[in-house]
Records
---
Amino acid sequence: MNQLPVQGAQVVSRIAGLLRIVGRKPEGSPLVALVRESGLTRPTVHRLLTSLASEGLLDHDARTGNWVLGPEILLMGSVASARFPLEEIARPSLRRLAEETGESAFFSIRRGSETVCLLREEGSFPVRSFVLHEGVRFPLGVASAGTAIMAFLDDDEQDQLLENWPVHAGPFADTHTEVVVRANLAKTRQTGYAVNPGLVLEGSWGMGAAVFDAAGRPAWALSLTGIEPRFREDRQNFLGRLLMEEAHRITVQLGTPGKELL
């Protein structure tokens, strides 16, 4: 009797993990990548994928062989968006940032120990960085959005993340060493905005500013990404000021009764 809830919870966790992996990229993922990233056996992954596809939550792209998000996910997202006015609150800020800077602007949310990119607005500058797009997840403290959020967490929360940093950072641990991250966090607290000097991908820079909830906790972030020459030190103050202005604007809006994001 006690075993059934555990098994059920395990299945739900596995399904949620597979959906997250598939949702990281618009083109989806092949079976071999899902097996590798989930840590599950090939038969288990295939069985779960087939079940999800039968419910319309996933599709199998016969042309590429990739598994992609299905139509039921779109319907669920449409219904959920009515509860969480992401477009209404965040999109105007993204547009202003993209128009004023020419860079690509993003809105990310904190989910546990990760950040997830929710919205994107392309800038006019013809050369772009494609590190970040909707659905991409990074550990907190990795990339500019995650650094901006982590920098303003309570000390206890920061210490928990830093306590076993290589495991938390995962594949980003080599470039985001604990020493580098601690220095980035300290500088972010000082300036109010985060700078990622090509640590995720060489030559691709980013800057971010935290957005706070009604309780004053960093829960979201605005960020800009682009190529290194567009983020040199003489332009960082300008970009940082714009990010903080728009982050403050959203924070104030979120403090209005009835306005909630996820």
Note: The longest strand covers residues 218-227.
---
Amino acid sequence: MHLPVALAILLGVVQGITEFLPISSDGHLALAQLLFGGEADLATTVVLHLGTFAATLLVLRKRVAAAVREGVRGLLQPSLMRETPGGRDAFVVILASIPTALVALTLKKPVEEWSSSPTIVGVCLLLSAVAVGSTHVAPRGQELVPSPLGAVLVGFAQGAAVLPGLSRSAMTIASLLWLGVRADRAFELSFLMSLPAVFGAIVLEGRHGFDSAGGGGALLLGTLVSFGVGILALLALRRVLVGGKLAYFTVYLVPLAVATVAWGYARP
């Protein structure tokens, strides 16, 4: 499909903001489709995700490099998974990725139908608000990583975020904070955990999406915008989280959730 430049820029901005801030990119996409009709072009969605994926890699480049390096070495020398920071990060990501994949694949089919229900989207947005709101009273932990069981629980929370309106970053960050993980480490681990899931989705969906890609120049521009805006959103989120102000996002999420649920009940 032909993608206008102005629309490509707008999509890039929306992708960069909602992919990282705890307000649910899938929820906003579902609302946009319900309000304006039609469906997002698959190629456009995949390529825009490449921009935010690259933004995550750049912002967390040191942590990613250490996790990959020590994780690979840990396959031959398992003790490194406990003794090195990168190894511990890799171990947490591996443990979390297993339940994430299981839950996401199980819910994939029903989610396609639920995305067209404002009531379900609104309820999930409200759950996102509960998650971020709960961080206001979460304990100020000092742990650098969660326990193995904790990592699995966070993985389930991440998998559940396939539901439209349930923010992945809200669910994982809130879970990590409640498990006693330090705020700055909760930020890092949340987005380290996201990389395998996002990469897998790009590979799986990209096989079908790129065949229909059109408007390459505009699509590239949108991707660059999502990359740049994504970097800014990540840095802003880290500052908000470390400052203990993540709960402020409820000011946006609660009215949006209530209005969406009300719309769902009002629809014929």
Note: The first helix runs from residue 5 to 18.
